[in-house]
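Re: that backbone. Tokens:
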């Protein structure tokens, strides 16, 4: 890498990789990021695993650390007891403190794939440690006095929720998040809060609170809402969310999610979801026609490697190649269901197997898929949705291979 590369700040990296939606006070923020700074992002603790939709903020913390800054991943153990109305059209489920603690522990393992927590180079904090100790009257006097209800009502996330109904507990959320920013500023010298574009109002409220209480300047960065080229929310599939936890989304399925990326999204996703240098992103992202498969393989391999490591990523790649080329390769990573031999003596209608395998959400969806020519058994198109799958359909390894469309595979094995 040339000298210019070493002069790049993380802000330049964010700009060229497509991370930034809005920032506060850009000239001073750029200057600030030439030195060393502490930043934070808050994470919802209501699930025990992150999903692909959480990757942009997590990757941004990793980039901050790679450029010598100190990231704080803040688990919302306290705010999780309240529920954030931002970006939601209904009230969040409120969960117990015990569940939040367990989820935070599971999330830390996933953060550790991206961040080095040794020697306080990154911090994992839980806002329950300070929010649950607040005295309500003191909080109203010291913090609440600085908030204008009129300004809060003008916040986009609150305006949207007023139409469907906003509870008082959720209305308080902005005060609590602003307090978090002030607390981290005060105790950890944290100067930047980052988050999704729906967090803009909350971030600005925190900056304002720090200015009022401390007379100091803090900063905010928001990321764009991730939509795919066909207008869908990033990370959602017909089977639901794509999880980072291998027990909820297998490494093979995770790899398949990335390799099935729309051609129009490949370059953008290489920039956002891998650590490949930008010159490589440009090179692979500019591939066209049949060559774009190579770029998708690189995206899928690099994205899977970050979460699941080299070994699982290679296994998923081999399995994927074997299926697409019908050549040799390690097919062990293909999702597999073990069933009893007896079940196939009379035979099972193939549309039922597609439903059981999760290749289709329902029997009727499976029937439609097969009637439209998109269902395959052992690489041959299925002509009838009620075809009975029997013992003679299994190969010498006692396996059959199901396929929905071009890219979704599933193996059934009998014992």
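Recovered sequence:
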């Amino acid at each position: 890498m040339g000298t210019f590369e070493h002069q790049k700040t993380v802000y330049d990296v964010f700009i060229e990789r497509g991370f930034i939606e809005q920032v506060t006070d850009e000239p001073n923020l750029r200057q600030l990021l030439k030195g060393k700074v502490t930043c934070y992002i808050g994470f919802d603790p209501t699930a025990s695993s992150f999903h692909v939709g959480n990757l942009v903020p997590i990757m941004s913390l990793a980039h901050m650390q790679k450029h010598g800054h100190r990231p704080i991943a803040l688990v919302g153990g306290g705010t999780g007891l309240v529920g954030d109305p931002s970006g939601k059209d209904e009230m969040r489920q409120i969960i117990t403190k015990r569940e939040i603690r367990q989820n935070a522990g599971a999330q830390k393992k996933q953060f550790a794939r991206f961040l080095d927590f040794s020697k306080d180079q990154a911090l994992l904090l839980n806002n329950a440690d300070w929010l649950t100790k607040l005295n309500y009257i003191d909080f109203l006097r010291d913090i609440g006095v600085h908030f204008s209800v009129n300004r809060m009502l003008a916040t986009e996330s609150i305006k949207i929720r007023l139409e469907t109904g906003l509870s008082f507990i959720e209305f308080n959320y902005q005060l609590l998040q602003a307090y978090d920013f002030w607390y981290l500023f005060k105790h950890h010298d944290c100067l930047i809060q980052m988050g999704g574009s729906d967090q803009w109002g909350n971030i600005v409220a925190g900056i304002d609170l720090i200015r009022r209480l401390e007379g100091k300047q803090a900063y905010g960065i928001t990321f764009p809402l991730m939509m795919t080229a066909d207008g869908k929310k990033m990370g959602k599939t017909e089977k639901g969310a794509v999880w980072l936890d291998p027990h909820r989304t297998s490494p093979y399925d995770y790899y398949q999610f990335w390799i099935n990326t729309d051609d129009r999204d490949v370059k953008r996703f290489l920039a956002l979801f891998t650590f490949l240098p930008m010159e490589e992103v440009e090179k692979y992202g500019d591939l066209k026609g049949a060559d774009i498969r190579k770029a998708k393989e690189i995206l899928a391999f690099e994205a899977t490697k970050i979460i699941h490591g080299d070994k699982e990523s290679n296994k998923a790649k081999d399995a994927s190649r074997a299926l697409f080329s019908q050549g040799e390769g390690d097919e062990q990573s293909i999702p597999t269901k073990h069933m009893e031999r007896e079940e196939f003596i009379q035979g099972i209608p193939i549309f039922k197997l597609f439903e059981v395998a999760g290749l289709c959400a329902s029997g009727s969806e499976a029937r439609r898929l097969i009637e439209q020519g998109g269902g395959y058994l052992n690489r041959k198109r299925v002509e009838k949705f009620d075809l009975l799958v029997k013992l003679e359909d299994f190969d010498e390894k006692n396996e059959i291979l199901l396929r929905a469309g071009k890219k979704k595979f599933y193996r059934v094995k009998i014992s």
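The longest helix spans residues 292-325. Residues 3-223 form a domain with the Rossmann fold fold (CATH 3.40.50.620).
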